[in-house]
Amino acid sequence: MKPRMKTCTTIFTTSATKLLSVAGCIISAFGIAYQSNSVAAPANSASSSSISMAIPEPSAAHFPGTLKLDVDVTDVERKIHHVHLTIPVTTGPLTLLFPQWLPGNHSPNGVINALSGLQFTANGKPVSWTRDTLSVFAFHLNVPKDVIVLEADYQYLTAVSPAQGRVLVTPDIVNLQWNSVVLYPAGFNADGIMVEASMTYPAGWQFATALEEQKTSDSNNNKAKFLPVSLTDLVDSPVYVGRYVKRYDLSPGTEGKAGVPVRFNVFADSAESLEATPEQIEPHRNMVKQMYKVFGPGPYTHYEFLIAASENFGGTGGLEHRQSTEIGVGVNYFTKYKISAYMRGVVPHEFIHSWDGKFRRPADLMIRNFNEPMQNSLLWVYEGQTSYWTEIIAARSGLYSPTEAREALARTAASMQTRAGRTWRNLQDTTNDPIMSQRGAAKSWASWQRGSDYYPEAVLLWLEADFKIRELTHEKRSLDDFARLFFAVPQNKAQSGYATITYTFDDVVKALNAAAPFDWAGFLRSRLDSQASNNPLDTFGRSGWKLVFTDKVNEFSDAANKARNNADFAYSLGITVDKKEMISDVEWGSPAFAAKIATGATLLAVNGRTYKPERLNNAIIAAQKDKKAIELLIKSDDRYRTVSIPYFDGLRYPHLERVDGSKDRLGAALQAL
After folding, report:
1. Residue 405 to residue 400: CA distance in whole angstroms
2. Which residues does the chain have with pLDDT short of 50?
């Protein structure tokens, strides 16, 4: 074994500590696991500020007693959560943890620096604490003699602007994520810690959550007290609270799950944004029906969509949970429904995660508590197959029209075909991206560096798997058969409950072979490990369709670009320009790249005239005819320069085109069950 050399710098306070630390450095240099925080020191000692103390490993033992967590979310103007936590304790050392590794985020992105004002008391007297200098999400204390209850008071300072992170509080909507406000004792699995939570919220507001509310005689009508649950279930059950709220029932008439509520809880900036027509709600009901036909009964007793139709709250996107999901759809989700197809996919995506990700979960993503590292090797199933089913279910339910579904898939295929980074970084390696990019910083050259491509490229992988199953079984079976087997929830709940069932690569292969015998291990590894640039396009060889580029706009993409005020020239010049005339993306190897244009430059003029999207559009069309290079005036830093781009291939947008005489397997996949 070749030693791994590293530099060790430690503040030594005693000779014993020094010897142990040096030994740790020597051991780790030879690749042997060593816990650098295994050297204990007395809490509150003079030297404890410079020593990482022992943090107990999670165990199967249940924490004795119940944490009581009370959160006041009424401070909406300053966007501050005020927290009071009561912890049963015994005399001696105690380590409390703030959640670091967050489910659904696949990364250690707990916002520890937003926890502030931390104070502990016991029997009315202050108890000091020390933060671990290596594991900064850990707090060490010594519980005084004869103390059985420790009280903690602190604040969670949510982002006051998007520049600081996702906005969770506005004057009209609050998103309470329990992982942001809880401290829990180290040494226990999250399943073994019980928490009784309560929430005080603005008077007159309403809330929705997967948690069950306790029925009390308390006259305070703006305080909710919830039934005790495990820490795992608490973190998995966020709360939305709002001034303007409307609920739509999606459960009537759903096969296989009669009587189980599925609710679409919409929170908005105004009453107008809440209103949906029956024609808009019907595809969402169809989505639930189609979901049950693919996956079978859901792993929940009720399901709550927590929907923010807002321009101030948290942006668009979602975060999955077993019995609920947090989704930001934008203020125009219902009011401009005809052009909002690009936003609708997030709704089935997060719902699918109840089965794919929550009920069935990759074994290396199953952690004992929220401060144990995750591994993401199977995100191409967890997120990638969920993304595949998103497109399928959206089309089958009517959330997408058939044309919109094909345009969405064309966009995905085109983005992967032109992803230059595929020549050096394979699909499997992109599953490491959440941990590598845990703070979500934008990439300088996204098409070369690659990011979370286990979403879009895996859509193509699973499409190809579906088409292959159809081909092998003479159109009698499909990936639907895999899903019915792989995601089936045991019906004997008295024995099985809704416990998470983990899986490995071999389990995925086994279920695929049950749908249609084939060398699925070889198939998957060739797609996951390949750096061949044409790999994604193999998908359409069996589909009955092919990817083409024309000068006609892809309407699905165009709606998304207009909503974001982006001008998209990715497949022609290789640039995207935002509403501030800033070049927000440059495709690696594109004509713009060859002209040494980089992300962040400002586009000022096109052929000597002030930049406008339509002016650049017309310049590209003209260059195709007259073969004259396009001249762009750009500003980068404090430097102005004119660049000449000899591009003459015209406007290019991706579409799927039917292959005459071929079997339309894509059409069959998109057909409602």
Report:
1. 6
2. 1-49, 254-257, 494-496
Predicted local confidence at residue 664, as pLDDT: 96
Tens digit of pLDDT for each residue in 375-414? 999 999 999 999 999 999 999 999 999 999 999 999 999 9
Phi, psi of 575 (to 5 degrees): -130, 155
Backbone angles phi, psi at 672, to 5 degrees: -60, 145
Q: Taking the CB of residue 485, how many other CB atoms lie within 10 A of it? A: 14
pLDDT of residue 46: 36
CA distances (Å), origin 115, targets 43, 73, 119, 179, 390: 21, 15, 11, 11, 36
Per-residue H/E/C for 621-667: HHHHHHCCCEEEEEEECCEEEEEEECCCCCCCEEEEEECCCCCCHHH
Question: What's the one-letter identity of residue 567?
Answer: A
For residue 179, the SS3 value is: helix
| Contact criterion met (CB below 8 Å) for 137 and 186 | no
503 to each of 64, 276, 334, 370, 480, how far by Cα in Å?
A: 31, 39, 38, 20, 18
The single-letter code of the amino acid at 300 is Y
How distant is the alpha carbon of residue 353 from its chain centre? 11
Question: Tokens in use for 365?
Answer: 């993503």
DSSP string, 551-583: SS--HHHHHHHHHTT-EEETTTTSEEE-TTSBE
- CA gap 269, 347 in Å, rounded: 20
- Give pLDDT, residue 217: 64
pLDDT of residue 495: 47
Q: pLDDT value at position 258?
A: 55
Neighbours of 23 (CB within 10 A): 11
Do residues 363 and 502 touch, judged by C-beta distance below 8 A? yes
Phi, psi (5° rounding) for residue 633? -95, 120
User: What pLDDT, on a 0 to 100 scale, did the predictor assign at position 646?
Assistant: 98
**Conformation bin of residue 151: beta by default, left when phi > 0, alpha when psi is -120 to 50:** beta
User: Token pair 């390949």 is at which residue?
Assistant: 530
Q: How many CB atoms lie within 10 A of CB 196?
A: 17
Please give the DSSP secondary-structure letter assigned to residue 467.
H
Question: What pLDDT sits at residue 338?
Answer: 87
Q: Tokens standing for 147?
A: 């103390």
* Alpha carbon distance, N-terminus to C-terminus of the chain: 56
Is the alpha carbon torsion for 527, 531, 534, 537 positive or negative?
A: positive
Residue-level pLDDT at 439: 59
CA distance 465 to 520: 9
State residue 215's pLDDT score. 81
Please compute Rg for the chain using Cα positions.
27
Q: Exposed e or buried b for every residue in 52-63, given b needs 16+ CB within 10 A?
A: bbbbeebeeeeb
For 423-454, write each residue's pLDDT tens digit. 999 999 999 999 998 656 788 999 999 999 99
What pLDDT does 68 receive?
Answer: 98
pLDDT score for 73? 98
Percent of the chain with pLDDT over 70: 89
Q: What are phi and psi of 306, to 5 degrees?
A: -105, 100
d(CA 506, CA 523): 13
CA angle 641, 647, 648 (to 5 degrees): 145
Which of helix, strand or coil describes residue 523?
helix
Amino acid letter for position 47: S
Pairing of strands 92-97, 184-185: antiparallel
Q: Which pLDDT belongs to residue 39?
A: 35
Q: Is 348 left (phi over 0), alpha (psi -120 to 50) or beta?
A: alpha
